[in-house]
Specification:
- The chain is mostly helical.
- It has a single domain (about 5-185), classed as A middle domain of Talin 1 (Up-down Bundle).
- About 60% of the residues lie in helices and about 10% in strands.
- The protein has helices spanning about 10-15, 25-30, 35, 40-45, 50-60, 65-80, 85-90, 95-105, 110-120, 130-140, 145-155, 155-170, 170-175; strands at about 15-25, 175-185.
- Strands 1-2 form a two-stranded antiparallel sheet.
- α6 packs across α8.
Amino acid sequence: MGFLGSLFGAKDKAKQLQPVHLVVDDSVIAGGDITRVIEPLTWSVSITDGEEKYTSDLNAFTVPQRHVFALNLYTAKVTGGHHYQFFYDPSGIVWEEVLGGLEAIGAQKNVDTFKEAMFRIGGSPSKNHKSRKKQIDLLEIDSSAFDDLDRALVANQADLREMILAYIKANANDFMFSGEVNKPI
């Protein structure tokens, strides 16, 4: 059960999910829709069922796919909210892949911003959602503690998107996918 799929209640999962064949090929990559390129991960990788499930789900995908999946989730959470929300929510489980992805695409400004956000919550965030929330709660910080970092990411968002797209195109073979995933109907 992937990120979006895991948002459905257990009772409704069987009724609302259906296997769908997805293809990520040269035409999808050339289309430049990052969300479409990482859609297989969106429906297959759970960020809400703990570190073991998350790691197990990621094993089916390449490192570049993992990077872009995490970067897409990170940028969506921060531009739609805050770094605080990213780390406080289940999405924070992807923090290592975000850091690796930012480094892999050569986004040094964003690496520095992300490392500073990590520092502000104690350095190395827990992969466990409850533990990570406790880390943040113990520091008695709120979303305003990240305002400068949020602005930095938003200001660099267009450049970051272009860097991600260039990374996808440079590693196109690593993003190819043809298979079934469970999607809501």
